[in-house]
Amino acid sequence: MKPVVFLACLVPLARLVARVVAGRLGANPAEFLEHATGDWTLRFVILTLCVTPLRRIPGLNPLIRFRRMLGLFAFFYGCLHVATYLTFDLVFDLRGLWADVMKRRYITAGFTGFVLMIPLAVTSTAGWVRRLGGRRWAALHRAIYGTAVAGVVHYVWLVKSDIRVPLAYAAVVAILLAWRVRTRLAGTGRSAAAR
Ligand code: HEM
């Protein structure tokens, strides 16, 4: 199944490339690319977060095999997203990025979400799991929730009028976060009772 999931994760990129080749990027190609890559970054972050709750459903435990791949695709689309911004909005002016991070609150949120993904991508290998130890590795990788929250805040802040779509993403992230807190509290309660 892994090659199939891998190819499925490349479909959004293939569709974007096809649009570029066909010249079908609308009146503002830079904006189109920024929006499409931003959407897919957030969607892959959310898909990655869905794996753990879905595993609890009988028969779906093997989904865990795809979690790392989904997380790395979130980072991949995040890199494309930041690259389109650096190319079209800033024309490779890295100091301009820092100025934007300081000046525009939605860029501050997006930047935070992206920076949080970097250590997760770097430590995604089996070697890093061994080096850090399972517990510390898992604690570090909870930063993906930070990326999800920063991503939806970024989206809500950048939209000027109709915020229904970003709010829908925010609701999904809130549900996933609430599930996580609940299972953690239940786990703590169970181990306290066992002690
Ligand atoms: C350095 C980091 C980032 C920068 C500079 C950045 C920049 C941008 C810009 C310029 C836009 C378009 C704004 C507009 O047209 O008004 C945008 C849209 C968006 N970004 Fe980011 N972003 C960053 C990180 C992220 C991250 C980490 C995520 C997700 C986790 C994300 C998700 C989105 C989404 C969902 C949109 C809106 C797409 C739409 O309107 O359909 N961005 N971003």
Explain how this protein is built:
With 195 residues, this protein is mostly helical. The chain is built from nine helices and no strands. The chain has helices spanning 2-22, 29-55, 67-89, 94-103, 105-122, 126-132, 134-141, 143-158, 164-194. The model has no long low-confidence stretch (mean pLDDT 95). Protoporphyrin IX containing FE is lined by residues 31, 34-35, 38-39, 41-42, 45, 78, 81-82, 85, 89, 107, 110-111, 113-114, 147, 151, 154-155, 158.
User: Rg from C-alpha positions?
Assistant: 18 Å
Order of helices and strands: HHHHHHHHH
The major beta sheet can be summarized as: none
Amino- and carboxy-terminal Cα gap: 41 Å
Shape: globular
Structural class designation? mainly alpha
Tell me the number of strands. 0
Provide the β-strand percentage band: under 5%
How many DSSP H or I helices? 9
Bound molecules: protoporphyrin IX containing FE
Topology at a glance:
Blueprint: H1 2-22, H2 29-55, H3 67-89, H4 94-103, H5 105-122, H6 126-132, H7 134-141, H8 143-158, H9 164-194
Helix pairs in contact: 2-3, 2-8, 2-9, 3-5, 4-5, 5-8, 6-7, 8-9
The chain binds protoporphyrin IX containing FE.
